[in-house]
Each structure stands twice: as structure tokens, then as C-alpha cells.
Amino acid sequence: xxxVVKTERIQIDRLVLGSFSTNAYIVTCRETxxxxxxxxxxxxxxxxAALRDxxxxxILITHGHMDHIPVLADLKKALSVPVAAHSGDxxxxxxxxxxxxxxxxxxxxxAIQFQVIHTPGHTPGSVCFLAGKHLxxxxxxxxxxxxxxxxxxxxxxxxxxxxxxxxxxxxxxEVYPGHxxxxxxxxxxxxxxxxxxxxxxxxxxxxxxxxxx
Length: 213
Hints:
Elements: E1 2-6, E2 10-17, E3 22-29, E4 34-38, H1 44-50, E5 55-60, H2 72-79, E6 83-86, E7 99-101, E8 106-109, E9 112-118, E10 127-131, E11 134-138, E12 141-142, E13 145-146, H3 152-166, E14 174-177, E15 183-184, H4 185-196
Parallel strand pairs: 4-5, 5-6, 6-7, 11-14
Antiparallel strand pairs: 1-2, 2-3, 3-4, 8-9, 9-10, 10-11, 12-13, 14-15
């Protein structure tokens, strides 16, 4: 486990779990010790250990792909807290969602407020969670490119999600993706501007990188 953010109000810890090296995040309000989990990619025991000395309130799901949810049912059983996911991906989950998230919803965690941002493209129900300048992005955006898309239509959708919902956020927004290390939004905006200035195939999709695609 690695602490990626620690301020007077918020602490975010990253756990790299499962066979796909998927990130799970533990978010804790430092004033109340209330916490939540983002995604359930593996090793319930590791997640429970990271939650020790906190008061778990929610399990939030960024999207319904199998590498982000394989231990969701076991984690829900262990914690007995609500599971929250967007309706667009709810049917992909192994258990029912207790809360169906919508764009613009707010999730309260002690003194912290998370805004739900619906960012379809990687999946229909992909969401990001924003608290102040901290963005947990799932597989919507990574350092160097967007999440994987299965068709040119999906690629156009994820680009629209990024340009309309994510890139308008402040440059100093810190992005914590579903795989790999964090990035800063200013870097991704600059790389996307360069990407957009070039011509691209009409059928572009898959694993796209701003610099080389």
C-alpha cells in the first residue's frame, strides 16, 4: 500500500491488486476517520487491512470490467456497506448495486465531498470521482492516453467525455487511474492538444497514446 495523498482533510492510499495490477483506492476523511473503497480488484484481506482504524462507509465502483470487481461480493459481505455504481454498468457487477450513481451526484465522506462524473467510452457506465483537486479516474484516463476502447464510436465517446467533463477541470488536478501511476491533468491536456493537432485514422480505437497514435 502506498499513500498518494495526505492533507489535513483527506488521505488516499493506493493498493495494486489482482492479476492485472489494478489499483484500488482507500479514501479516508482525516477528521472523522470515515473511509470508502474504490474498486475491488483482489485480495480482500489486503483491503481490510488498509481499512483498519477507519470506519468504512461505501464501496464505489468506477466501472464493471472484471479486473476491477472480482472480489466485490466478498468485500461487500465483509464490510456490510453500500455498493455504488453507475446504472450503465450495474448489470456487469456480480451483485446488485445499493446505490445507482448519476452524473453530478455527491457522495459525502465526513468533511469530504466527492462529485460523480459520468465519463462513458471505456464502458457505458464509467465514472470518475472528484474531491477538490483529487480525481480517481478508473480507466477513463491514464498518463499518456485515454482508456481502451473497443470501437471507433467508443473512442469518439471517450474523447467527448474527456473534453467536456475532465479537461475543463483545473490544471493542478491530480489524476489517480485504475492502473499505473498518478498524473497531473495539465500534462494530459498538453499531450491531448498535440494529439488533436495531428490527423488520425477514422477507425482509431483500442489502446491509444496521445504521443504516438
